[in-house]
Amino acid sequence: MNLTVNGVILNQKRSALIIKELIREQVAEHAEDVEEFLKNYTVEESGNSIILRPPSVEGIQISLFKSS
Q: Where on the tree of life does the source sit, at the highest rank (predicted)?
């Protein structure tokens, strides 16, 4: 499953990491719930990383390194 976050499609490897982490953090029960949870997040590409920023300070910020 490739996640789509605010119009940005993430590859399968990144999607799997995010899904696994959010289920572990108990903010989602299933992979399908993750996209709903991330619907208001923004995606920023900064140098060698991708950052998913929550809509509020209480949210979970997710940073992933880009493969070279």
A: Bacteria
pTM over 0.85: no
Residues spanned by the domain of 22: 4-65
Q: What is the pLDDT at residue 68? A: 58
Q: Which two tokens stand for residue 44?
A: 């920023």
At 21, the amino acid letter reads E
**37: Cα separation from own chain's centroid:** 9
Domain count, the chain: 1
**Measured between alpha carbons, how far is residue 62 from residues 28, 48, 54 in Å?**
15, 14, 9
